[in-house]
Amino acid sequence: MSGTAVIRTRGLTKRYGELRAVDGIDLEVAEGAVYGFLGANGSGKTTTVRMLLGLVLPTEGSAEVLGAPMPASRTTVLPQVGALVEGPGAYDHLSGRLNLALLDAAGPDPLPRRDRRRRCAEVLEQVGLDPADRRPVRAYSLGMRQRLGLAAALLRRPRLLVLDEPTNGLDPQGIREIRTLLLALNAEGTTIFLSSHLLAEIEQMCTDVGVLDRGRLVLQDRLDQLLRPSGLVEVHSPDAHAAARLLGDAVVEVAGERMLVRADDAASLNHHLVGSGVRVARLGPYERDLEQVVLEASSVPPAPVETRAEVLTS
Amino acid sequence: MTPVRWRWFVVLGAAVLLVALPAAVQHRPGGGPPTRPTADVLARIQASADVGWSGRAQSTGTLQLPSSDSFATLGTLLGEQVELRAWWRGEDSWRVDRVRSTGETDTFRDGRGQVRWVFESERATYSPVSTIRLPDAVDVLPPSLGRDLFQGAQVDEVAFLQGRRIAGVDAVGFVLRPSDPASTVGRVEAWFEPTTWLPLRVDLYGRGGTTPVLSTTLTELDLRPPAVSAVRFDPPASVALAYEESTDVAAAANGLELADLPSSVAGLPTRDGRDPGAVGVYGRGPTTMIVFPLRGSVARPLREQLERNAGTTQTSAGTLAPVGPISVLLTRLPGRGGGFLLAGTVTPETLTAAAAQLQERA
Amino acid sequence: MIGVELVKLVLRPRTWVVLGMLVALPTLVAVLLAVTDVAPGPGEGPPFLSAVLTDGTLFPLAALGVVLPLFLPIAVAVLGGDAVAGEVQSGTLRYLLVRPVGRLRLLVAKLVTVVVFVVLAVLVVAAVAAVEGRLLLGTAPATGTVSLSGSTLTPQQLAWRTALALAYMVVCMLGVAAVALFLSTLTSSSVGAALGTVGLLIASTVLLGLDAASALHPYLPTRYWLAFVDLFRDPILWDDVVRGLLVQLGYLVVFGLAAWANFSTSDVDG
């Protein structure tokens, strides 16, 4: 990891009675990163996010955000943080813009009143809401509420964005818009901590990944490190056993007709096998996707391939 | 201490302090034993009628008197909790308010007359004060009741009692156990202001009683004599001052000279030592009996009321009803249903003997 | 923050519905009294109501006497119970706290808002009742209003004492507001917090009627509520008014501290 840490936790733990909702996690989020915080629902993501924001007090361990301890320094840290925690919250009977203005006025800010008003209109446009919309939030769709929540998080141009399931309720078009917006903000230097249960979302956006499984951080690394070439070649052959005998120590794994072989070059391996009379049905470099990485790291019991996605999304 | 807990200790501390502080102030110990001889104290108690003061009192009675329009006030005074405010300049210059959450009934005494103001009915009534009258709000004020009950007390009937803190005063306590066998009063406990000997609290117990049948205490006391203006009633312009001949049925009966009572009945002399008119008050201290003749129109409903009361018996002397330490006897005179009403803190036997004596005389 | 809370109070339709209901009851009473001309008997019913047929200037007090025992405390319980729990329910509490708004600051702002509502409610009820008293009920005797003690109050005295009584009623609601606020930090259900507060008030009223609980009476929150009547005696009977003030301040301190103790360290999960 490069740069200074924007979020750093040491042994962060939250117990509810006997249940360890979050169990001694050591997060490390570098400045300028887009950090994907991945885990199934109920794995402790939201509790971790709440501890980072000082909403929930840790039972043990410590958390530092923007270099200062939380929740002790929340008055200095939180003004530089924008957050969307477990869905947006708004007063149903007021318009989106008024909601935003009230939230803005609730805290201290050096900006004069007129600039604040302009800022509200700006962020609303930024997330794709009409600042002139006078309808009460009650009439909003789930996606519009989500956009309003994002607008609130972006309101003060934070150094750090902590977003919990930011694309919840958005249609594919909306998801794309928000992704573009967030990546643009990141390019301007905003660090983004994105918690999600959607592998695709994280794979498409993030530079770093942390995987939470039943309260434990089972994996934390740069995405390009995780998905780098493995140096293995996947071989499908009806003569798998003959091939294994031929290749000896280079064979990592044999399962039926499928085998993994350590080899620098797939083409020369193919040449070697066919030349030795081994029939090859299929052969190619072995590349893992994020789903496999996550599954390997998690203690989730092995599931048939077609239901694996459900394990993560359900 | 964890950071979570200490705040709750602050809360607990504040709560305990706020509850305990008033309780502690209230339960401060009272005054020690008096240094004066008891006979001197008893005389000073009676002389305290001239001490000017103002304040508030609370009187709690537990006696359920038979209800009767003529005696309604008496029933309230002896059977309920009554809140009083008083300004006292002397025996014939005072003001006593019976305070209710919806209004008040005030009595202003000025020399030989008194004005009664009732807020709810917007009525102000002037009447001359007679020497004979039924007990009123002024009589359950601790100073008045205390003087009344300790009137004629003998030194050997009185003993020192643990002091108490009453109305901000370290009060000195005495208990009075009447030696008169006719009495139904077990004891009277009273506490006094130690310089003026003004009674501050009086608890009246029946024979063998553990809770007082009547308890009256000052809750606030200012020992500066109040100004004349404090006890004067200026009727509002919108209210006409009514005039009544007599303050209550006893005063009315006394004025009518329906009977001529003896100077002593059942061995009890009149309270003031004078020869009575139509209404007589007999006895000494807490042992007291009132005798007055009633016309049929008052006696008949009262008799019906008494008969409805549990514990009422018909004797040869008349209708006899014990109400706690108070005994009530209504005799039947030949004629229109009238009779003598005898009532007081005396035994039913004493009333029966007194009734027989009156019958004989008639 | 207080300003934001006040804006929210004003923009909330519920505020005006509750206010309307508070005004509706005395209005109904005034109309019924004016139509039937039957006042409660002396010593019965709410304070001053027996007197308003002859003196309409007392109707603001009678109207407040009508709403004080039940309507006003329920309104306060609903508002106070909603203070924190309502923000949890709408999902806005976490956003206020990460704005960041200090938790103590938030509690103080909520309490001040409830008190502002009570002041508003008392003033509106008194003002409407004053108009109704003048239009529908008896005109005051030209010689001035008669006090409970039979003395005559000048219009200035009456106005001064009425203002004191209104202020006292606001004070009486402080304890209720503090209790509701505390319960509101305990639960995420504003209805639950409001009902809990109302339950406490009912318990207090029941205990007041019980002689066996007389040792508790001076500590009960509803004990001195009707002491505003004492302001219309002559001379003014201050004792119960002062005690009522102290009791309410006591509840405010204890439950205010409890709300702070609980809310400062509680996990915001809603």
From TrEMBL, chain A:
Pfam families: ABC_tran. Residues 7-239 form the ABC transporter domain. InterPro entries: AAA+_ATPase, ABC_transporter-like_ATP-bd, ABC_transporter-like_CS, P-loop_NTPase. One of its GO terms (molecular function) is ATP hydrolysis activity. SUPFAM superfamilies: P-loop containing nucleoside triphosphate hydrolases (SSF52540). This is ABC-2 type transport system ATP-binding protein. The keyword Nucleotidyltransferase does not apply. Keywords: ATP-binding, Nucleotide-binding, Transport. The keyword Nucleotide-binding applies. Belongs to the ABC transporter superfamily. It comes from the Bacteria.
From TrEMBL, chain B:
This is Sigma E regulatory protein, MucB/RseB. It comes from Microlunatus flavus.
UniProtKB/TrEMBL annotation, chain C:
It comes from the Bacteria. Pfam families: ABC2_membrane_4. The keyword Membrane applies. The chain crosses the membrane at residues 16-39, 59-85, 106-129, 165-186, 198-220, 241-261. The keyword Transport does not apply. The lineage of its organism: Bacteria, Bacillati, Actinomycetota, Actinomycetes, Propionibacteriales. Keywords: Membrane, Transmembrane, Transmembrane helix. This is ABC-2 type transport system permease protein. It comes from Microlunatus flavus.
